[in-house]
Amino acid sequence: MSSQSLFSTITAHYTKATGLLESLADYFPNLLIRIILAWEFGEAGFEKLRGTNWFTEISFPFPFSLLPAEISWNMAIFFEIVGAFALLFGFSTRFFSISLLILTVVAIAAVHWPEQWGTISELLKGYRIIDENGDGFGNYKLPVIFIIMFLPLIFSGAGKLSLDYLVKKYLAK
Fold first, then answer.
1. In this structure, are residues 37 and 146 in contact, taking their beta carbons and an 8 Å threshold?
2. Claim: this prediction has a pTM higher than 0.70
């Protein structure tokens, strides 16, 4: 087999494989993102539902600091639990993705951000996933990952395996 023939064969297989992947792109990537985000936020919401309100012990950034801790606590529970189910089924995906992204930004500012930092290297010490151990460096890596995971859902929607897609298809008729 000549090198040109081998190259043509490899190119043909690559084109076939990427074509298959592209045909699945509207179905699976956003579904998998929705499932893992639903799991994470649902778990956090149910943990809050069964727990006691620890929001009274933290300082929220403005304008969230204007709300009483009880209202913030209940809003977080609502958006984490209802948003988790909405993401799982792909219902109002953009709305709940934006809502949970905002909740995540507030959580970073109120809980996960370093207490003090003066240099970029000090700030980057908080880019980690650990239980808070009181060293002041923070732990904002996982919330940043969640924010990045929300972006495809916000920009491109839930994908074809979703209630959003079925509703859109039904309304187009």
1. yes
2. yes
